[in-house]
Protein backbone atom coordinates (compact mmCIF):
# COMPACT_ATOMS: atom_id res chain seq x y z
CA UNK A 1 0.00 0.00 0.00
CA UNK A 2 2.75 2.44 1.00
CA UNK A 3 4.59 1.60 -2.17
CA UNK A 4 1.45 2.30 -4.18
CA UNK A 5 1.05 5.70 -2.59
CA UNK A 6 4.66 6.74 -3.15
CA UNK A 7 4.43 5.59 -6.75
CA UNK A 8 1.37 7.79 -7.31
CA UNK A 9 3.10 10.69 -5.53
CA UNK A 10 6.14 10.18 -7.71
CA UNK A 11 4.09 10.28 -10.90
CA UNK A 12 2.25 13.41 -9.73
CA UNK A 13 5.52 15.08 -8.83
CA UNK A 14 7.08 14.44 -12.20
CA UNK A 15 3.93 15.78 -13.85
CA UNK A 16 4.26 18.97 -11.75
CA UNK A 17 7.93 19.26 -12.67
CA UNK A 18 7.13 18.86 -16.34
CA UNK A 19 4.61 21.71 -16.12
CA UNK A 20 7.11 24.06 -14.50
CA UNK A 21 10.16 23.06 -16.49
CA UNK A 22 10.77 26.64 -17.60
CA UNK A 23 12.76 28.59 -15.09
CA UNK A 24 13.47 32.30 -14.82
CA UNK A 25 17.06 33.55 -15.05
CA UNK A 26 19.23 33.07 -11.92
CA UNK A 27 20.23 36.76 -11.77
CA UNK A 28 18.60 40.17 -12.16
CA UNK A 29 21.24 41.50 -14.54
CA UNK A 30 19.85 45.01 -15.03
CA UNK A 31 19.56 45.69 -11.31
CA UNK A 32 22.93 43.99 -10.64
CA UNK A 33 24.62 46.03 -13.36
CA UNK A 34 23.32 49.32 -11.94
CA UNK A 35 24.49 48.34 -8.46
CA UNK A 36 27.88 46.85 -9.29
CA UNK A 37 29.03 48.08 -12.70
CA UNK A 38 27.44 51.44 -13.52
CA UNK A 39 29.88 53.44 -11.37
CA UNK A 40 32.57 52.68 -13.97
CA UNK A 41 30.51 52.04 -17.13
CA UNK A 42 27.59 54.47 -16.80
CA UNK A 43 23.85 54.02 -16.42
CA UNK A 44 22.61 51.22 -18.70
CA UNK A 45 26.14 50.90 -20.13
CA UNK A 46 26.21 54.48 -21.46
CA UNK A 47 30.01 54.72 -21.13
CA UNK A 48 30.80 51.41 -22.80
CA UNK A 49 32.08 51.82 -26.33
CA UNK A 50 29.50 51.03 -29.07
CA UNK A 51 30.21 47.66 -30.64
CA UNK A 52 32.88 46.75 -28.07
CA UNK A 53 31.92 43.11 -28.52
CA UNK A 54 33.74 43.09 -31.88
CA UNK A 55 37.09 43.56 -30.14
CA UNK A 56 36.79 40.04 -28.79
CA UNK A 57 37.59 37.16 -31.09
CA UNK A 58 35.10 34.80 -29.42
CA UNK A 59 32.20 34.61 -27.00
CA UNK A 60 34.50 33.09 -24.39
CA UNK A 61 36.88 36.07 -24.57
CA UNK A 62 34.01 38.46 -23.94
CA UNK A 63 32.94 36.23 -21.07
CA UNK A 64 36.46 36.33 -19.60
CA UNK A 65 36.60 40.13 -19.54
CA UNK A 66 33.21 40.32 -17.82
CA UNK A 67 34.29 37.63 -15.37
CA UNK A 68 37.40 39.69 -14.50
CA UNK A 69 35.35 42.76 -13.52
CA UNK A 70 35.33 43.80 -9.87
CA UNK A 71 31.51 43.53 -9.75
CA UNK A 72 31.55 39.96 -11.04
CA UNK A 73 33.43 38.48 -8.10
CA UNK A 74 31.60 35.47 -6.74
CA UNK A 75 29.14 35.24 -9.64
CA UNK A 76 28.17 31.68 -10.52
CA UNK A 77 28.67 30.49 -14.07
CA UNK A 78 24.95 30.68 -14.96
CA UNK A 79 24.76 34.18 -13.48
CA UNK A 80 27.74 35.29 -15.52
CA UNK A 81 26.03 33.97 -18.68
CA UNK A 82 23.10 36.31 -18.03
CA UNK A 83 25.39 39.29 -17.46
CA UNK A 84 27.35 38.55 -20.64
CA UNK A 85 24.07 38.40 -22.60
CA UNK A 86 23.11 41.82 -21.23
CA UNK A 87 26.52 43.20 -22.25
CA UNK A 88 25.99 41.86 -25.80
CA UNK A 89 22.74 43.81 -26.02
CA UNK A 90 24.51 46.97 -24.79
CA UNK A 91 27.31 46.52 -27.32
CA UNK A 92 24.73 46.17 -30.12
CA UNK A 93 22.63 49.12 -28.89
CA UNK A 94 19.65 46.80 -28.71
CA UNK A 95 17.12 46.54 -25.88
CA UNK A 96 17.59 43.61 -23.51
CA UNK A 97 14.86 41.41 -22.01
CA UNK A 98 15.05 38.96 -19.14
CA UNK A 99 12.48 36.94 -17.18
CA UNK A 100 13.44 36.89 -13.49
CA UNK A 101 10.43 35.86 -11.38
CA UNK A 102 7.50 33.55 -11.46
CA UNK A 103 4.52 33.27 -9.13
CA UNK A 104 1.32 31.24 -9.37
CA UNK A 105 -0.30 33.50 -11.95
CA UNK A 106 2.22 36.12 -12.98
CA UNK A 107 5.70 36.44 -14.41
CA UNK A 108 8.08 39.37 -14.00
CA UNK A 109 11.34 40.48 -15.44
CA UNK A 110 13.60 43.33 -16.43
CA UNK A 111 14.12 45.45 -19.53
CA UNK A 112 16.94 47.77 -20.46
CA UNK A 113 17.07 50.57 -21.41
CA UNK A 114 14.22 51.76 -19.23
CA UNK A 115 12.68 53.78 -22.07
CA UNK A 116 12.16 50.72 -24.29
CA UNK A 117 8.55 49.65 -24.80
CA UNK A 118 7.63 46.04 -23.98
CA UNK A 119 4.90 44.02 -25.68
CA UNK A 120 3.89 40.43 -25.12
CA UNK A 121 1.81 37.87 -26.96
CA UNK A 122 0.83 34.25 -26.45
CA UNK A 123 -0.36 32.52 -29.61
CA UNK A 124 -1.36 35.86 -31.18
CA UNK A 125 -3.26 36.94 -28.06
CA UNK A 126 -1.94 40.28 -26.80
CA UNK A 127 -1.06 40.23 -23.12
CA UNK A 128 -1.18 43.23 -20.84
CA UNK A 129 2.30 44.30 -19.75
CA UNK A 130 2.60 46.36 -16.58
CA UNK A 131 5.76 48.29 -15.70
CA UNK A 132 6.04 48.31 -11.87
CA UNK A 133 9.28 50.32 -12.28
CA UNK A 134 10.88 51.71 -15.47
CA UNK A 135 13.23 48.70 -15.74
CA UNK A 136 10.69 46.03 -14.77
CA UNK A 137 7.78 44.38 -16.58
CA UNK A 138 5.02 42.19 -15.17
CA UNK A 139 2.43 40.02 -16.89
CA UNK A 140 -0.60 38.58 -15.11
CA UNK A 141 -1.23 35.28 -16.83
CA UNK A 142 -4.79 35.00 -18.17
CA UNK A 143 -6.39 31.57 -17.66
CA UNK A 144 -5.08 29.00 -20.10
CA UNK A 145 -2.02 31.00 -21.15
CA UNK A 146 1.15 28.97 -20.83
CA UNK A 147 4.53 30.48 -20.14
CA UNK A 148 6.01 28.47 -23.01
CA UNK A 149 3.73 30.31 -25.44
CA UNK A 150 4.78 33.77 -24.35
CA UNK A 151 6.84 35.92 -26.66
CA UNK A 152 8.09 39.33 -25.58
CA UNK A 153 9.46 42.14 -27.69
CA UNK A 154 11.22 45.28 -26.54
CA UNK A 155 11.65 48.22 -28.83
CA UNK A 156 13.49 51.48 -28.67
CA UNK A 157 13.93 53.44 -31.87
CA UNK A 158 15.12 50.97 -34.50
CA UNK A 159 16.55 48.63 -31.87
CA UNK A 160 14.48 45.61 -31.10
CA UNK A 161 14.78 42.40 -29.05
CA UNK A 162 12.57 39.33 -29.15
CA UNK A 163 12.39 36.76 -26.40
CA UNK A 164 10.56 33.43 -26.66
CA UNK A 165 10.38 32.04 -23.15
CA UNK A 166 10.32 28.48 -24.40
CA UNK A 167 13.85 29.01 -25.77
CA UNK A 168 15.52 30.99 -22.99
CA UNK A 169 14.72 33.26 -20.02
CA UNK A 170 16.80 36.09 -21.54
CA UNK A 171 17.62 37.59 -24.93
CA UNK A 172 21.06 37.90 -26.56
CA UNK A 173 22.23 34.39 -25.70
CA UNK A 174 24.40 34.64 -28.83
C1 LIG B 1 36.18 49.81 -10.88
C2 LIG B 1 35.67 50.06 -12.19
C3 LIG B 1 34.92 48.94 -12.90
C4 LIG B 1 33.84 48.22 -12.45
C5 LIG B 1 33.13 48.31 -11.11
C6 LIG B 1 33.45 47.36 -13.55
N1 LIG B 1 34.29 47.55 -14.61
FE1 LIG B 1 34.12 46.69 -16.45
N2 LIG B 1 35.84 47.59 -17.06
C7 LIG B 1 36.60 48.43 -16.28
C8 LIG B 1 37.83 48.74 -17.00
C9 LIG B 1 38.97 49.63 -16.50
C10 LIG B 1 37.76 48.05 -18.24
C11 LIG B 1 38.80 47.97 -19.34
C12 LIG B 1 39.67 46.79 -18.96
C13 LIG B 1 40.40 46.15 -20.07
O1 LIG B 1 40.17 46.48 -21.24
O2 LIG B 1 41.18 45.23 -19.75
C14 LIG B 1 36.48 47.36 -18.24
C15 LIG B 1 36.00 46.61 -19.30
C16 LIG B 1 34.74 46.04 -19.36
C17 LIG B 1 34.15 45.46 -20.53
C18 LIG B 1 34.78 45.42 -21.91
C19 LIG B 1 34.53 46.75 -22.56
C20 LIG B 1 35.33 46.97 -23.80
O3 LIG B 1 35.24 48.08 -24.38
O4 LIG B 1 36.04 46.08 -24.23
C21 LIG B 1 32.91 45.01 -20.19
C22 LIG B 1 31.90 44.34 -21.09
C23 LIG B 1 32.74 45.29 -18.78
N3 LIG B 1 33.87 45.94 -18.31
C24 LIG B 1 31.65 44.94 -18.04
C25 LIG B 1 31.52 45.13 -16.67
C26 LIG B 1 30.47 44.57 -15.87
C27 LIG B 1 29.34 43.71 -16.39
C28 LIG B 1 30.71 44.99 -14.59
C29 LIG B 1 29.91 44.64 -13.35
C30 LIG B 1 29.69 43.24 -13.09
C31 LIG B 1 31.88 45.81 -14.62
N4 LIG B 1 32.38 45.86 -15.88
C32 LIG B 1 32.41 46.47 -13.50
C33 LIG B 1 36.27 48.94 -15.05
C34 LIG B 1 35.22 48.48 -14.25
Number of strands: 7
Listed once per kind, the bound small molecules are: heme C
Task: Kindly state the percentage of residues in helix.
Answer: 25-40%
- Average per-residue pLDDT, rounded, comes to 91
- Strand order across the largest sheet: 4-3-6-7
> Terminal Cα separation, in Å?
51 Å
Supply the number of structural domains.
1
For the biggest sheet, the summary is: 4 strands, antiparallel
How would you sum up this structure, described in words?
The protein is of the alpha+beta class. It has one domain (23-164): Immunoglobulin-like. It is built from five helices and seven strands. A four-stranded antiparallel β-sheet has the order 4-3-6-7, with no helix packed on it. A three-stranded antiparallel β-sheet has the order 1-2-5. Helix 4 (59-67) crosses helix 5 (77-91). The mean pLDDT is 91. Heme C binds next to helix 2, helix 3, helix 4 and helix 5. Heme C is lined by residues 33, 36-37, 39-41, 48-49, 52, 55, 65-66, 69-72, 83, 87.
Task: Give a short overview.
By secondary structure, the protein is α+β, with helices and mostly antiparallel strands. The protein is 31% helix and 24% strand. The protein has a single domain (23-164), classed as Immunoglobulins (Immunoglobulin-like).
Question: Keywords for this structure?
Answer:
174 residues; alpha+beta; Immunoglobulin-like; four-stranded antiparallel β-sheet; three-stranded antiparallel β-sheet; 31% helix; binds heme C
Amino acid sequence: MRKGISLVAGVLMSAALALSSLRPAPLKPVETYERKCSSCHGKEGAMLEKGFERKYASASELREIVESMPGAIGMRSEELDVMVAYMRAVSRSEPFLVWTERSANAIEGEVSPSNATVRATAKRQNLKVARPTPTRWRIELPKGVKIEDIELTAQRGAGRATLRLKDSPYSHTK
